[in-house]
Amino acid sequence: MRNEVCIRELTKKDAAAYRTLRLQALKEFPEAFGASYETSKSLEDSIWEQMLSSSTTFFGAFSGSQMVGTANLVRGGSEKTMHRGDLYGLYVSAKFSGTGIGRELLNAAFCKAKSIGILQVHIGVTAINPSAIALYEKVGFESYGTKPRNLIVGDNEIDEYLMVKFLDR
Description:
Layout: E1 5-9, H1 15-28, H2 37-41, H3 45-52, E2 57-63, E3 66-75, E4 84-92, H4 101-115, E5 120-126, H5 130-138, E6 142-153, E7 156-166
Parallel strand pairs: 4-5
Antiparallel strand pairs: 1-2, 2-3, 3-4, 5-7, 6-7
Helix pairs in contact: 1-3
């Protein structure tokens, strides 16, 4: 059983905790994210603060004062794409994996999306991540395509499945 976990939107005051968890995610699962650990670890603290001050909505899951999960929601940037959002960077630390935090982060993103008029949320997931695919399917995402060789990590060519969840259906 896990301790009580709080899900909330992040602010620039959370930059250090976000940096720590994001770097953990990039190091632990390099094949799951477009960013690399090596590049990200050299970013100045001010860059991490700027990220959390951007138009992206960052969510954090906290067990006590420790950030244990994250997800990012980006709304379409033009008049014609404001109805859609993209979800990036979903990660839950290994110690808390399988406890429902991923689903809670997704639900927080869906609530935020609905509140600002987003009708559908898109996500990309690497084809070699069956647990993430299963989670997304459980919460209502549907697959609509594949980006072949979306990432190359070392000698591994990794496809990405494209998925969508319609919030108005």
